[in-house]
C-alpha cells in the first residue's frame, strides 16, 4: 500500500474501480513520466488545483496551445521532436486503457520522433543535454 500511496499522479484512472495493475496501467504511468520530462512539472502540483499533470496538460493544450505546455528550458531547435514526444505521452495517458499503445509501440513511436538523431547544430557548450538549455543567473554571489 505504501508504494501506491507514494505514486499519486502516476496511477491510471481505472485503478480506482478495478484495483488491478496491468500492462495498460504501466503504460499510463510511463506516459506520466514522459509528460513530466516534456513539461518540466511534477505529476501533482498545487498550481494544478484539483487536476493532476495529465489533466493540466490536456486542458492547457486545448486552451493555450503546445507552447504553454512544453518546458521553456528545452532547446527550441527541437520543438518538433519534443512535440512528438508530448504526443506519445498523451497517447500513453489516454483515459481508455484499450486505446493506450503497447510498450512495444511506445518504443517505436519514441524512436520515430528523431530524438536519437544528430543535433542540428553541434557544439560542445557544457549543456547537460543537447535538448536542455540551462538557465544561468547573471547574479554572482560574493564571498
From TrEMBL:
User: Boundaries of each Protein kinase domain copy?
Assistant: 1-115
| Gene3D superfamilies linked to this entry | Transferase(Phosphotransferase) domain 1 (1.10.510.10)
This protein's superkingdom?
A: Eukaryota
An MF annotation (GO) of this entry: ATP binding
User: Which keywords annotate this record?
Assistant: Kinase, Receptor, Transferase
Which InterPro entries does this one have?
Answer: Kinase-like_dom_sf, LRR_receptor-like_kinase, Prot_kinase_dom, Ser-Thr/Tyr_kinase_cat_dom
Coiled-coil residue windows: none
What name has this protein been given in UniProt? RECEPTOR-LIKE PROTEIN KINASE HSL1
Originating species: Salix koriyanagi
